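[job 4471] stage=fold_predict status=RUNNING
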Amino acid sequence: MEDKEEAGSNHVFLSYLMKGYLSCILCLRLVAVATMVSCALASLFLGFYPVLFGPFHFMFSYVFCLTWFEELLFQYFGL
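[job 4471] inference complete, writing C-alpha cells
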C-alpha cells in the first residue's frame, strides 16, 4: 500500500517537475525569438548585414532544438 502511495507521489512530483521545466523552455524560447527579432531589425535598419547571420542562425537552430526536445518530453511523459 505504501509503495503505491510513494509511486503516486513520485509521479505527481515528476509531473510538476516536467511542467516547470517546460515553462523554463518556453521562457528560453521567448528570449531566443526576441533576440532573433531584435537582431534582424538592427541588421535591416542599421545596415549591418553580417550581424544577421551570426546570432540569428544560432538562435534559430536553438529554438528548433528546444521544440524537438519538448516534443520528446510530451511523447514520453504524456504531459
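[job 4471] summary: The chain is about 95% helix and 0% strand.
[job 4471] exit 0
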